Amino acid sequence: MRNLFTNKLLILSLAxxxxxxxxxxxxxxxxxxxxxxxxxxxxxWKTYLEYQPELLxxxxxxxxxxxxxxxxxxxxxxxxxxxxxxxxxxxxxWGGNGVLRWHEIAREIAADYNVPPNNKEDGTYPAPDPMxxxxxxxxxxxxxxxxxxxxxxxAVAQYDALVAVWKAKYxxxxxxxxxxxxxxxxxxxxxxxxxxxxxxxAVAVASRELxxxxxxxxxxxxxxxxxxxxDSRLWAGANVQSDLDAGAxxxxxxxxxxxxxxxxxxxxxxxxxxLYPTLIADANSRGFQATWTSRDNPARPPMLPFYGGVxxxxxxxxxxxxxxxxxxPLPGTPGFEADLQEVLDLSKNRSREQLRIASFWADGxxxxxxxxxxxxxxxxxxxxxxxNEIRSARTMALVSTALQDAGISCWDxxxxxxxxxxxxxxxxxxxxxxxxxxPGYTSGHSTFSGAAAEVLAYLFxxxxxxxxxxxxxxxxxxxxxxxxxxxxxxxxLEAGKRVGQYAVLRAKNDGAE
Amino acid sequence: MFKxxxxxxxxxxxxxxxxxxxxxxxxxxMMARRDLCTVVQFNHTQWDQYWEGDRLRxxxxxxxxxxxxxxxxxxxxxxxxxxxLISLPWVQTGATNTYLNGQRGIQDLSVWLKWRLxxxxxxxxxxxxxxxxxxxxxxxxxxxxxxxxxxGMQSRTSSLRLIAHYQLPIGIYSTAQAGHTWRSxxxxxxxxxxxxxxxxxxxxxxxxNLADATLRLGLLKSRFQVEGWLEGSTGLSGDxxxxxxxxxxxxxxxAITYGFWGRYWIGKLAVSANYGQVLSGRNVGKxxxxxxxxxxxxxxxxxxxxxxxxxxx
Lengths: 513, 313
What we know:
The structure holds two protein chains of two kinds.
Chain A: H1 2-18, H2 67-81, H3 85-95, H4 98-113, H5 144-172, H6 177-180, H7 199-214, H8 219-235, H9 241-263, H10 276-285, H11 317-323, H12 334-348, H13 352-360, H14 369-384, H15 389-417, H16 422-425, H17 444-459, H18 464-480, H19 486-508
Chain B: H1 8-14, E1 35-47, E2 50-52, E3 55-57, E4 65-77, E5 82-95, E6 104-106, E7 108-122, E8 125-138, E9 157-167, E10 172-183, E11 186-187, E12 193-195, E13 198-200, E14 204-205, E15 210-220, E16 224-235, E17 254-266, E18 269-282, E19 288-299
Antiparallel strand pairs in B: 1-4, 1-19, 2-3, 4-5, 5-6, 5-7, 7-8, 8-9, 9-10, 10-15, 11-14, 12-13, 15-16, 16-17, 17-18, 18-19
């Protein structure tokens, strides 16, 4: 009797061992949708960079009654006859908005590369080497300024390419293959957007090229994703090969231009550590004697001290200086002491809700950074409102350029005043999140969030209030975390809004409204 | 920056039943019917090196990490063959060289039932087999996504284990046990995280299940008990800590640990002392732990023949 019971128990426990719960989280699903509007005038919208018209010219497609086109349709049907389930899934995946898919890929890679290098035995830190991107420490260290620039360059390339694609689409007006051959059934929701040249091929190639430039250690992976994206249009029955070839040509031409821009945007000077002492001297001369020092152990060189000199997208040098917030209160002044007392109190006692907010917005190492956080929110809104490809790209470009402008403006301010973090002023201040390796005033989160919320609130007026609240929450999160004084956050949020307004100004004048 | 660390304590103290021998879910001892033993136990665990994946390192941004635990636990003899156990710890964490706040608070409530399946004489000694089933659940809303300074994992768990105990009349004994712990996913405050180098857009984090096994050798006398033990535990899934990053709830933790334990009875009171050391591991701290406990035994049912020895029936 007892043995029988023991046996049953053994069997039960063994069974339980094999009934493992699901230990893999779900990946994000974005279902394809039929766009509400197609923006036939998209070819006239204002691009970020200037292109010679002949650079983006594609040849007229083969006529509908031509042998070439007939053969292309036959070839597409033979592809469709042998589509596997895996290919069908890929078609649906990319059909859920290629622009947004590439931003997802960018966020994932940015998160993966957002790890500060470990120090060497001698206490110094190795610098990532763009010539050897896969050797530790991998290039790049995708910190918030780097990620902001990456997302902006990607978004600009996608948008500029799609403007050229839209122009050619409505010049040539060749509709999707299923419009001409009833035996071709597209897997994706039908729309009457001309299919030559393919917007997906343009986005795939432009994104691939920019991402290869930004993350040179990921070339093989990116090429794989891009070729899957392009081929997925055949598996979906949505394009013939010549649609894809023409789109790819435009994507490549635009990407080369954007990469040329990126090579001269001053990013190469952003990490000039040898000139850092001049910044300290300048801050001293402005009355900031106790300047920021690294909280890392051993002390880490400041993150991109000259990122404030990188080229901005939506305003110029004079506006950048005008956006820079006034000097914060100096230690010893009542305003300063009140801010210090606030974080001292908080560091002893935070509510659970304050801890939640600090953690939700932490966006530290191993994450897609604050620009990625807002980039994701923009993508969610685009998907919710089912924007078409070119309007998706416009939205991402407006937000992403505003985010990079915010980063540039904020870094300009940070290294102008070089103020200390609360725990540097008073070690009794303890934080509940990591302290980033750059000066305090103004808060990066606040500036990024102020800018992104301003742009998104303009583009999605139904959500304006919620977006501005999110920005305030993101800004507050840094006070709750006790890594910033209140003045850092409030001034950062305001400066961010001013940055965002320049992107809104562009949006009002880019021809899309 | 928030940099790498690892929480061996989680393996050592939280997800395995607490080491309060003589009345734990993992040992080979039983409370007699209607006996109630209550323990207050203090433990201190610390480490200044940890395995990031399989690479042992230190981290100047943390220095020495410590975790202190004050725990109340009771074991009750429902019958001579069936015991019920309950425990509730208060935990405090910190590090010697960090600007980060430590955490402190009440952690997870655990309950177990322990059943003696077999008790027979073999080769001049007595062989006993037990099984234990347990459940645990967090009782406060502490932040789990705060490794290595978190006080717990926020995971609800269930566990099942088998225990074999062989004892000679002179008091020398050996206990072998193996267990499996299921852990629920947990919801964190963020809504994206990296798992196996992939980015997931969810706040629902998979926490690996665990398997563990222990071998003990000891001497049990009427007034005292001493033993040495060796234990292995492993996560059954999960990823490695990423290079130079903080540990995360999804990490697969492994540890081989040895230790000693002793207890001395004075009437219905007993005092205990324990020591443990991690020998090798993966995604855990190379931790040293020590602690002490006070036991108090109550016979709820008056029996004429009853004495302290009945605890070890």
